[in-house]
Write a structure and sequence with these properties.
This protein is mainly alpha-helical. The protein folds into 2 domains: 2-90, no CATH class; 94-263, MetI-like (MetI-like fold, Orthogonal Bundle), CATH 1.10.3720. The protein has 14 helices and no strands. The protein has helices at 2-28, 33-38, 44-54, 60-73, 86-91, 94-120, 126-139, 143-157, 173-207, 210-217, 222-260, 265-274, 278-306, 308-312. The longest helix has 39 residues, at 222-260.
Length: 315
Amino acid sequence: MTGVIKKTISSLLTVLVVSCLVFLAFSIIPGDPAVAKLGTQATPEKLDALRESMGLNKPLFVRFISWIGGVIKGDFGTSYSYSMPVASLIKGKLPVTIILTLYSFVLMILLSVFAAIYAARREGRVLDKIIQIITQVIMSVPPFFGGILITLIFGLGLHLFAPGGYISYDVNMPKFLGYMFWPALAIALPKGAMAFSLLYTGLVTEKKKDYARTAYSRGNSTGDVFYKHLLKNACIPVVTFFGMALADMIAGSIVIEQVFGIPGLGRILLTSIQNRDYPVVEAIIVCIAVLVIVSNLLVDILYRVIDPRTADSDK
């Protein structure tokens, strides 16, 4: 419990540091949001008036204190381009990205775990070797390219879904999940192939250890030994990988959203970067950072549940 509390405090401090770095980074990079909004033909008077209304003429320290105070309250300021609260702007986009990430994560776990168990129990057979070759190929395909292939094959070729035919979750949830399956699959496949390789290697290694042979000699069934002992021990390093993969999926989903035309955080992030709409960009980056940190915290807690020795080492 002490370790979890320390990890939670560390995570909160990390969020604070990330927020500070994000604000400072976008405060010192070249570019003028006022010019981006009014254009280069605007008069100096209009540009100065707009900077004043945006609060850009205030000292950096004053703007930082104001911004960090707002972040703590959940207020990320007002969008330069849309002239509306940033929180309201991204509120409808954030659930889409979160659902896509979780969808991908669940698919990754299901595909990798079942494939690894199936292959490990048939080690050395032809089908085992075929599965390993396929996973090696999938592992080398970037998610965005996999998304393009899925669109061409399953969308335009087999007509299993309509590319660009996104339906919002608040309009029709079943159709929303049906469409989101394909981008989630594009994200899940490469990570799932990596998780398969890691879990498969762990299972094969555990099968050859003395405790496994002892368990078999005592009359335990193959299934009992495999699922109650081998799988649990082999999963310990895989859980760490799952945490890293989940964090990577959060960022990767932003790219995939562009491939499948999904109105999540990715589209508005790219548009805001082009328009130098820094409050929106800062808010999205902070949200992504929070999601990554929370996912790592949850995985760390799960790791301690699976392997109690980790918790004991904190005492």
